[in-house]
Amino acid sequence: MKSVGLLQMMLQAGMLIPADPSSEIGVFEQFFTDIGDQQSLEDDLSTYSSHLQNMKTFLDHANEKTLVLIDEFGSGTDPKIGGAIAEAILNELNRKKVFGVMTTHYSNLKIFAYNSKGIVNGSMNFDTENLSPTYQMKIGRPGSSYGFEIAQKNGLDKKILKYAKHKTGKNEKAVDQLLVDLQRDKQAAEEQLKAVQDREKQLAKLIKSYENMHKEYEFKRKKLKLDIKQQELQQTARDNKDLEKLIREIREEQNLEKAKALAAQQKESKKELSSSVNELTEDLYYKDVSKEIKQGEIRVGDFVKLKTGTTKGKVESINKKNVVLIVGALRMTVKLRDLEHTDAPMEVQKNRGIQSDLLSTPSAFKTKIDIRGMRKAEALQSLQEYIDQALIANVPSLEIVHGKGDGVLRLTLKQKLKEYKEIASVTHPPEEMGGNGVTIVEFN
After folding, report:
1. Which letter, b or e, does each residue of 50-88 get, where b requires 16 or more Cβ atoms within 10 Å of its Cβ?
2. Do 33 and 168 belong to one domain?
3. Is residue 12 part of a domain?
């Protein structure tokens, strides 16, 4: 009670007060207090009279800009009469919208506050097990006076307490006991609630741990399945090399139809494996890819690597979903979703020539080859492998870039093409498309 008045006076004097940063407090023009007993030898009636005089002053002058502090409201006379008068005064102060804090032990005032708009009950918590105050205030419900409990703690004889309880009015005792029981039940409920909240926190941690473990398990399971399929695809590529050797042997025996049948069978088998690998790769690396791109956006100048391989490079330009990548002295165009950031410097081997194991990748057969800069022996080997692969893939035509120069590569190509009876025509495009530096091969 005194703390409330003191803090309000400090605030209005411009002093700092101990309060939460989010606290709100009013500013008042009047302060009315009725705190403490009179410490007089006069009888109770005279003491009560002094209280009533204060109440009259409050009622005459208090308004919505007034703070009223009343201790032991209604005391000093017969409880029933004092309680009734106190209730009437409280009702009038509430009607005037006066602010205030009042303490009382009267049950009728607790009930009146509960049923009246603008008035709120409050109580100080009491430890009923240890019979000691907790000095914690709870707003919203009335509290018991704990008269019998405090008397018991102070050693008052049980017979006296029993007699007093018997003499107490049934209604008064029932209300007081109800408040005690409610306080005890509330304390037990709060302890149970805290235990449940602790269990919920532990359960949330377990659920999160389970989800992380399940996600990791799913990734490893899919990765293992992808690795198996990739190994099968690599084995198919190795088998392709053996098949190429067999096809060359068959071709030398002029049995191209058998070679094409074997090639088609091998191509179909590889197609199924490639499809399975692509599906697993899509599920493993590209699921929710749009979300990943937002989290780590790739920009021009970034060092990146392919998600499904080890190729690394630097981003030269980005056009919507496609990226031009600098890999050593080469440029390549890849999908944005196929890339992820890397801090490692690029290490690119510079090899000249072409990729002869064309069936080892799931991409479509490329009908254009560039042999410029190759030596004769290297060009012959590359051309033989390339044309054999073209026959297996059943492509209708090829475009071979050999350049003009001194004509050595063009003559080498012409010599090699004579070995194939499956060629229908050999021509050169117009000058603007390469002229004699490019040879167009048409198959039957």
Report:
1. ebeebbeebbeebeeebbbbbbbbbbbbeeeebbebbbe
2. yes
3. no
Helix (H/G/I), strand (E/B), else coil: 35: coil
- Reduced to 3 states (helix: H, G, I; strand: E, B; else coil), residue 170 is helix
337 plus 301 within the same structural domain: yes
The winner for highest mean pLDDT among 93-102, 230-239, 352-361, 428-437 is: 93-102
Same domain, 53 and 164: yes
> Does residue 280 sit in the same domain as residue 304?
no
Single pTM value for the model: 0.39
> 40 is written with which tokens?
């007089």
Cα–Cα distance measured from residue 276 to residue 229, given in angstroms and rounded to the nearest whole number: 7
SS3 per-residue string spanning 133-153: EEEEEEECCCCCCCHHHHHHH
User: Is the same domain home to 370 and 434?
Assistant: yes
- Within a 10 A sphere around the Cβ of 203, how many other Cβ atoms? 10
Give me the count of residues in the chain: 444
Q: Are residues 148 and 226 in the same domain?
A: no
- Contact status, residue 98 vs residue 63, Cβ threshold 8 Å: yes
Does some domain include residue 150? yes
Mean per-residue pLDDT of the chain? 78
The pLDDT value recorded for residue 360 is 38
DSSP 8-class letter at 352: -
**Residue 98: inside a domain:** yes
Q: What is the mean pLDDT of residues 332-346?
A: 73
Contact 318, 349 (CB under 8 A): no
CA dist 257 and 262 (Å) reads 9
Domain range holding 314?
296-341
The residue among 264, 285, 306 that closes a domain is 285
**The total number of structural domains that make up the chain:** 4
Read off the pLDDT of residues 114-127 as tens digits, 9 standing for 90 and up. Answer: 888 999 988 888 77
CB atoms within 10 A of CB 114: 13
What's the CATH number where 377 sits? 3.30.1370.110
Residues of 256-276 as b/e, b for ≥16 C-beta within 10 angstroms?
A: beebbeebeebbeebeebbeb
β-pairing, 66-70 vs 312-319, is unpaired
Among the ranges 18-22, 52-56, 215-219, 266-270, which has the highest mean pLDDT value?
18-22
**Cα-Cα-Cα-Cα dihedral of 417, 421, 423, 425, to 10°?**
90
Cα separations in angstroms, 415 against 115, 198, 244, 375: 111, 85, 21, 15
